[in-house]
Amino acid sequence: MKLSKKKELVQKRRWRIRKKISGTSQRPRIAVRFTNKNIHAQCIDDIQGNTLIALSTTHADHKGVLPNMDGSKKLGTVFGEQIKGKGFNSIVFDRSGRKYHGCVKAFADALREQGLKF
């Protein structure tokens, strides 16, 4: 089954971004994915192939968080605290083919407010 042209272009952007960035155990990759109903974020060590931390609005603690600007900021703040709690200060940000504005920018700014560098 052939993908629609829009999905095909998004996938090409994902691949183009992933060619250039990679997470390590000292500087993990933060992958954020927005759907129409949820926000999913992962802290990934690409060398080992491990997900270090994962957070989503499907989790019971964040059930009422919507995938909008406010929800992005709330989830980014909580996720940033968890990352800092694990001892990471520097990260690589993966926007998963989305433009760096709106919800993606709000999420990244919330991470920066927690003291993370990328």
Tell me about this structure:
The protein is an alpha+beta fold and 118 residues long. It has a single domain, classed as Nucleotidyltransferase, domain 5, CATH 3.30.420.100. It contains three helices and four strands, in the order αβββαβα. It has helices at 5-20, 69-85, 103-113, and strands spanning 29-34, 39-45, 50-56, 92-94. Strands 3-2-1-4 form a four-stranded mixed beta sheet, with helices on one face. β2 and β3 (50-56) form a beta hairpin. The longest helix is centred in the middle third of the chain and has 17 residues, at 69-85.
Name a few traits of the molecule.
118 residues; globular; 4-stranded mixed β-sheet; alpha+beta; Nucleotidyltransferase, domain 5
